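ok here's the first one, seq then struct tokens
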Amino acid sequence: MGKTGFDSETVAFINATGITSSIQKDAISNLVKSLKSNGLWTKMEALYPFCGGNDNAHKYNLKNVNSHIISWGNGATHNYNGVIPNYSINNLNLNTSSIPNVSNNVHIAMYVSNNVSDVSFDVASHMFQPYNRLLVSIGYTGMTYFDLGDAYDQRVSASISKTGLIVANQYSSIASIYRNGTRMSYKPLSVTLPQYYDMYFNATPEGDARYNSRNFRYISIGQGLTDGEQSILYNIVQEFQTSLNRAV
């Protein structure tokens, strides 16, 4: 820790983003410390707290500010409450070779504040390669979908509210959708995905952007989580949002 009492990752993030608010600095610091003390920090590959209020601050990965920096497309709206992608193709500059055994060990978490059902790909890879897709869609046809591999045989879906912490999770050959720490739907799935996936936010690598007016206030991508870890992650993220006065 530095002389401020912040962990090194927090200091690096504050320096990169240019955040000056003491409230936001403390919120980031507490988020990092809580994830570390609960054993979740090492399971994160990319973590975007969307804190700072502008496109530059929102592009940085809290886990490592030098990796997986988002390249924002034209059209995204940034403010204190996070980001609304709109008509934009946003490259996460992340591929799944960074996640060990991605076929059976991955989570994609998103904290959303508004309950809309836009037809969109929230985080997606290889949409138009039907046996190679890794995709989360919160609002497609009013449902939330998590696809691994084939869109029809290897999909889990849930009819849930589109707000709060929504997590698509593959762990121990079980694909699940969680909302606010509670499993809402699951399906036993054994899949083999390519080890190299380029991942996009609000689009696919093929350049297919789908309109998305959801307000995102957090995204993390990393290793799969247990039921207990899902509950812990929700409590941590909810505390983070509450400290910023933007919880739902």
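and now the second one, same deal
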Amino acid sequence: MHELFDRYMGVRWLAPDATHIPEMPPVAMAPIEYGYVPPFRYRWSNSYHGAPGSAGHTEFERAHHFRMPRFAVSYGHNFYQLVPPPEYFPEHPEYFGMNEDGERVAMDDPEDYKREWGQRALDRIYQLCMTNPELPGVIMKTLRRWHAANPGAEFWCIMQEDLGTHCLCPECAAVDEREGTPMGSMLTGINRTADLFAEEFPDKDIMTYAYAYTRRPPKHMQPRDNVYFQLCTIECDFLRPLEERTRDENRRFMKDLEAWSKLTGNLLVYDYAPNFASWMRPHPNLHVIVPNLRTYAEHDVIGTFVQGDPYGTGGMTPLRTYLIAKGMWNPYVDHAALREEFLRLYYAETAPYMDEYIDFMTEYALEKKVVMGCFDDGAWLDATFARRAIEIMKRALAAAETDTIRRRVREQWLRLQYVGLTCAADVTKEPGRYLLERPAEIDSLEFLEWCRELGIRQLDEQYGRFHVPLEKSVEEHLGPLGQRRPKEVYPYVSIENARYAAEVAPGLAGAIIRFEDKRAGKDVFRGVQSVASQRWTLQEWYLQAKGTTVREEPLRTDYEIIAQSPRSVTVRGTLESGLVVERTAAFQSDEGPLELRYTIKNEGPEPIVPAVKVHPEFWTHGDREPEIWLEKNGQWEKHPLKVMEAGFFGGEPIEAAGVSRWAARVPGKRLVVAMTVHPDELENLFYFFNTRNEHVNLELVPDRAPLEPGEARTVRTAISLDTRLPKD
């Protein structure tokens, strides 16, 4: 019935709160002969209006022919639901993954297991050992219970946890080596379980992911007929259509899509629509949504799930959701015509301005050569963009003739105020201070009030941390309420010797925001230009590992200066727990490196685990992959670089024992950043790089044995810059 009204009478279900009904229905209709079989058997999304339990779960989904598979009990990352570690790990550690040290690892603490995902000790979450011959029988015990509770379901899910910590035992490693992918060991266990499942439930099916480390299909293995796969696009560039293959990320995905399409007829795609790092940031993917769905259809994909923003917080979410819904039903629809129609009907007299903004947003990102992942950090959003975008939206507000249209435009205006508060600022340097100016018209406290007014509940995915208060979400993005303003002043302290110059900004999380080799004219920090993203600075961060549940982020938003001279400055940050971190940055000689000395002290009444790390994020001056070098016994050796599946980032911990210095070399840039190492003061080293964001981190993880009240420990390092590895 919805198709009749849509196709022949011009009714449009634009949003749960916006159904367009033409003023004059057709006077008469000719006989209709029409039939249509959509290419996707399954079509569903949680984007905004499609979230189960929301107002859009009813008529909007029916109008757009959503058809979600009937899942039994659990859909998503569920290894630990299938085989709960507290129940099985004590007696059967062999069911769980083996790490690089040959240890079986699982989150077997019952209290930790009960926590929300974001509060768990993630270092204890390893995947199951999928080549273990007993494991399918264990999984079947859970599947039987789920079947008894949901006998009408279509699919029972066996899906990896949302981490890359797959089993490295000899059996799994051998299968993965043979198959050229960790999907080898995964499919070994899936196929065995599918055989058992088919014996008991011959008319039901298994679904699993081809996701992250399992995305690449196996070279030789064949999946069972009752196994379905969801191929995930999480690594892709969403600024450019997949079929154009203009980016490595998309070329790799298309290669996998083509291989999976040949391997199985039971292929679905799990797609990603918004920016999960921040719903509020502009996310110019509107022009690729329908073309990508068309690409899936042309590769015999039988179903699509598009994960979106379930709260409708993101910019242009109504249009994005409309394109998703229409494209899933008919991926060959004219998406440009869809966009024009939606803007005209939903935004009425302000449609030309919304159209202008979308074109501007998309063209700006393309001109900046942005790689638009679904966790984009917004580094491309500068004051120039924010100023122009806000100006367009102000014209739209002025043109709005009704409260309804004005509110819809205001929702987009607020997203651009967020950009105006978080974008790279226009920076003016004066003696002893930086002046930062952004195009926003409101401060962060006013932003919070507008969020409340417009019904916005959170600003990002808050992955695994449910029910985060709006105030906390705003503070995580904008800092303490009222502090982030269109105009800000940040004092800094300069220290220098004959060769180097450094600047410390106590109000920017105590960061070292400049470290420059004056002779070479090369700076490896440029933190003032990236205040919102915390990039390209040296800070102290919380560390999430070995039982800690805090987020990795700067320890404090500000530090205090407790001592300074022309060649040294000491800053101090005190945490609520009573942990105190003091950092002295000093030049001890005319030509010498920047020496850092940390004192980490417990000034509280109880023992404290000092889960902190030294977090220098060095600017690589381009998108070249860095080299990591270690000095041992006076000799430099190149460390193999660990690159993640996505190809543009990577990293890993390195044992500190025996290392006297380590360095990052940037090929083609005549840049080497070296740091001294005192192994007895450290638990380990950790490097991380991201070529898209042009940085490499050389992080120091101090000894994290508990500090008793009054106890302190020291961490030392010295940073130097050169064109080659230091010899002395």
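notes on #2: The longest strand covers residues 712-722. The radius of gyration is 27 Å.
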